[in-house]
Write a structure and sequence with these properties.
Structural class of chain A: alpha/beta
CATH architecture of the largest domain in chain A: 3-Layer(aba) Sandwich
Low-confidence stretches of chain A: none
Largest sheet of chain A: 6 strands, parallel
Oligomer: homodimer
Strand order of the largest sheet of chain A: 2-1-3-4-5-11
Order of helices and strands of chain A: HHHEHEHEHEEHEHEHEHEEHEE
Helix content of chain A: 25-40%
Number of strands of chain A: 12
Radius of gyration of chain A: 23 Å
CATH class of the largest domain in chain A: Alpha Beta
CATH topology of the largest domain in chain A: Rossmann fold
């Protein structure tokens, strides 16, 4: 087997070819119009260098950034992405047919999830699988932002501003339910006062959930928390809106924090104090696991949490 | 060729098989674990029922909704999506290799664009191509929201509120530059007063562009417009922020409008008056063209504009 065919067959790494040589061979092949057809490669028993991407939620405000990051990595490493996803987060095995059709060499799941039955067939085949997000009791590799560490950082920050009474606003996404659970644990551990009625989870999504939940909380009367933690930045937009309707100044009468650091967080009025998701690193970790010889391929199932960064702005 | 093999080969429509029969055959095949392998189909000369999706901008706030809508259609019509995209909107032919590798049967481009050289090879092969977005002088099918009609609706609405002096805030996206051009035309046609210095385009993207552009406009002093039209909702968030910094009440001292109707537009303070993008219909039109026997396949290149809906809220 020649060096050129090894490189074009995606086996350059096995013979330790220099990166510049590999790049030069690929460029020449491209100039000649040569494309390593996925079908021909599968028939030769060579890895298809094709990653399936299963999206749990197309309304995730991070989806574009994550898929963009994965696409950049795939492009750089000469892999391609076949996209599929579930309707309204329902794990429908039928949605997975594209992955069989294109003979994928690895699977990246984008989004936290629940039932994992649909994954068993992939894991049984020894296919490398990595999830960006969490899944209770996952037997596959997962990488996600460390919610507990992020919430603790927000609570310590609020505490440094003299805040002791805190509430939590969420929608029904699995990742947000998990953040609410973590909030309750952390608030108790750090000695904060938090009443059950200061935690509100709504079934709407994003800003609509934040708006309705905060209206509900304020409408009940009685003692109010001094700060509301929103499970995500999109939710925080609705929280800010509800507080403005009630004439409560932020952060003076009520501090507000988000989670995610979406591009718009900085431009909100007031600008949002939040936890920055390590988007590039999440994508890099999952990609390396399924495209390389990482732990996902070795059959282990690491559950990795990456720290998010506290970004302090005006809202708290 | 049996009915079953025709159905599984994606040729049911040619023999006019009943939809229920087709569904039943597909269900049986799925229960038996049969997957029509894309490779085998290509070797038999059968359409791969695989659509390439080329994304111009992974930071487009609409990307998730559009890709989600395309994925739902693909799933329903038994097609699969292979995803690729450009880095920072640069049309790099190298990014298109996945499309050759997977033997696509059609191409959907997501995003407005400029240079089209990279497309020639696809069009020359007679491959159906459709773009969601516009492209100057496109020789392929395009479908987009009708910016001129949307901007005219916003201007008529502002006029009905007694507003005569209007400005425009944009970032450097091709679609937004086009909206600014259309704004200048429409504002003149409808007899609005608009000065060149009331139109500001910034190279930042989204909210950051809105924030910097509005600061720039207000910082110049002199007579101010009564309303600022933002080229997109994300930009409007930055416009609102800059006005709030300057102590200008919205809409009393300055009305603000967006374009897109992102999910968060309703929850902003004040809630945003904007034009709703017909997301589902954009996806449906492009998908039908490339997956069906529509105009894209027939070699014509329709340029279709769909109306957006004026949504009046508090900001104007």
């Amino acid at each position: 087997m020649t060096l050129v065919s090894r490189v074009l067959g995606g086996k350059a790494e096995e013979i330790g070819a220099a990166a510049t040589t590999v790049a030069s061979i690929r460029r020449t092949a491209a100039d000649l119009g040569y494309v390593p057809n996925a079908t021909a490669r599968i028939l030769r028993g060579v890895s298809s260098r094709t990653l399936g991407v299963v999206v749990y939620d197309f309304e995730d405000p991070f989806l574009g950034a994550l898929i963009g990051a994965l696409q950049r990595l795939a492009h750089r490493e000469d892999h391609t992405l076949v996209l599929t996803g579930f309707e309204q987060r329902r794990e429908d095995p039928d949605a997975l047919r594209p992955l069989a059709k294109h003979g994928i060499s690895g699977l990246i799941i984008v989004g936290s999830g629940g039932r994992e039955n649909w994954l068993e067939a992939f894991l049984a085949r020894g296919l490398p699988v990595a999830r960006i997000g969490t899944s209770p009791g996952a037997t596959h590799a997962t990488v996600a932002v460390d919610s507990a560490r992020g919430i603790a950082a927000l609570l310590r920050h609020l505490s440094s501003r003299g805040i002791r009474r805190v509430g939590f606003i969420a929608d029904a996404l699995p990742a947000h339910r998990e953040r609410r659970r973590v909030f309750e644990e952390q608030a108790a551990a750090l000695g904060f006062g938090s009443r059950p009625e200061w935690g509100v989870t709504r079934s709407e999504s994003g800003a609509a959930a934040g708006l309705q939940a905060t209206r509900e909380l304020l409408g009940r009367g009685g003692e109010r928390p001094q700060a509301l933690l929103a499970a995500g930045d999109a939710i925080a937009i609705g929280v800010l809106r509800a507080l403005q309707e009630s004439g409560l100044a932020v952060p003076e009468a009520m501090a507000v924090t988000g989670f995610d650091d979406l591009p718009l967080a900085e431009a909100l009025t007031p600008a949002l104090t939040t936890i920055r998701q390590p988007v590039a690193e999440l994508a890099r970790t999952a990609f390396a696991w399924v495209a390389g010889a990482g732990p996902a391929r070795a059959g282990t199932a690491p559950q990795v949490l990456l720290p998010g960064e506290l970004v302090v702005r005006e809202s708290a």
